[in-house]
Design brief:
Layout: H1 2-26, H2 30-41, H3 46-52, H4 59-98, H5 116-130, E1 134-136, E2 141-143, H6 144-147, E3 167-168, E4 179-181, H7 187-195, E5 200-209, E6 220-230, H8 235-250, E7 256-261, E8 266-275, E9 299-308, H9 310-315, E10 324-331, H10 332-340, H11 347-350, H12 353-356
Parallel strand pairs: 1-5
Antiparallel strand pairs: 2-4, 3-4, 5-6, 6-10, 7-8, 8-9, 9-10
Helix pairs in contact: 1-4, 2-4, 5-10
The structure holds 3,4-dihydroxyphenylalanine (DAH).
């Protein structure tokens, strides 16, 4: 009878092992594998339970059964481990197959940066806003009348020459005015004065176009225009504003100088220079003569300015007896090259990433 018990238990052990192997063949993922493990050799697993029947065996049979039990359990454990590895390997292979090309360049695009001209524009806007100026905009395609006539630039003026101006095909819409690519930002003065009444305090920045193309000129460049119209405005206000602006922009106490000059839309007109902020100095703070920027001249030419011509005020229905004002205009590109130490203006417009990358953020 005892022999029978031993046979039964051994048979049951073999049966469980077979059932296990059959079930294992169906298992294809780690979760199911774990379930199988619990089901057979877990604490209450079917194989583990057989161990409890050892007590019913004759003492001399227990050893043989114990060895058989351990063998089966080890074999099951080894099978589980083998399967586990196989499942992990298959998952790895599936993963690798999913990524088609491990050498593929990553798809994260490089972070761009703000162009030095845009940065300069933003900085100019910041400084002039602080000084109480509105920042306004004007179109690149402009009426010839706004670009020239209303600015007291008569049809015979050389600036209107085909050599300088890009004319645009199409109707102007304003009193037969032809269309041009604006040659300067000064027409924004006209648009502003036609659109609002004094006191006016604006700056306008943007792209301007001239048929110039050589080492120091680009057919597309950038200007900033300033306009201040009120009662009793004088050139002293102009000089003070330019001084405040230049000092704030370059972060140093820099003098400004006005030199008599001619522009049709101002009277009197002046070119304005600023003290060179780049001159090397000695220990005592005295400027040394050899400066790569001003070439020892101590001054840097910035642009044109003057008191707005009475004819310009009249062309915009502003009474020159009641109001006066000043205007200025200068190139932004030069400011950017000065500010960032760019040796050649054309680098700004080439769009070469190797250059632009030098201006991060
Ligand atoms: N528009 C002039 C130019 O492009 C610059 C200029 C000169 C603007 C004198 C002004 C000014 O507002 O008063 O050369």
């Amino acid at each position: 009878m005892l022999r029978g018990v031993s046979d039964d238990v051994n048979q049951a052990l073999r049966d469980e092992q077979q059932r296990f192997e059959a079930a294992l063949a169906e298992v294809n993922d780690a979760d199911a594998l774990y379930e199988l493990q619990v089901q057979y050799i877990g604490k209450k697993g079917s194989v583990s339970k057989l161990r409890g029947r050892m007590g019913k065996l004759a003492p001399e049979e227990r050893k043989a059964f114990g060895m058989a039990f351990n063998e089966v359990k080890k074999a099951i454990e080894a099978s589980l481990e083998g399967r586990k590895q196989a499942i992990a390997q298959a998952a790895r292979e599936a993963d690798l197959a999913r990524i088609e090309d491990l050498t593929m360049a990553d798809t994260m695009s490089a972070v761009g940066s703000i162009h030095p001209i845009s940065r300069t524009r933003r900085e100019l806007a910041r400084v002039f806003r602080k000084l109480g100026f509105d920042v306004v905009d004007g179109p690149h395609v402009e009426h010839e009348e706004y670009n020239f006539d209303k600015l007291n630039i008569p049809p015979t003026h050389p600036a209107r020459d085909m050599q300088d101006t890009f004319f645009v095909n199409g109707e102007g819409g304003v009193a037969d005015s032809r269309l041009v690519l604006r040659t300067h930002t000064s027409p924004v003065q006209i648009r502003t004065m036609l659109g609002r009444k004094p006191p006016i305090r604006i700056v306008a920045m943007g792209t301007v176009f001239r048929k110039d193309d050589d080492a120091t000129h680009s057919p597309m460049f950038h200007q900033i225009e300033g306009l201040y119209i009120d009662t009793h405005v004088t050139m002293a206000d102009l000089k003070a504003t330019l001084y405040r602006f230049v000092s704030a922009f370059f972060g140093a106490d820099l003098k400004v100088r006005l030199r008599p000059s001619f522009f049709p839309f101002v009277e009197p007109g002046a070119e304005f220079d600023m003290e060179c902020p780049f001159c090397p100095t000695n220990a005592a703070g005295e400027k040394l003569p050899h400066c790569s920027v001003c070439k020892g001249g101590r001054w840097i030419e910035l642009g044109g300015s003057g008191m707005v011509h009475p004819k310009v005020l009249e062309s915009c229905d502003i009474d020159p007896q009641a109001h006066s004002g000043w205007a200025f205009g200068f190139g932004i590109d030069r400011m950017a090259t000065l500010l960032h130490g760019v040796p050649d203006l054309r680098l700004l417009f080439d769009g070469d990433v190797r250059f632009l990358e030098q201006f991060p953020c």
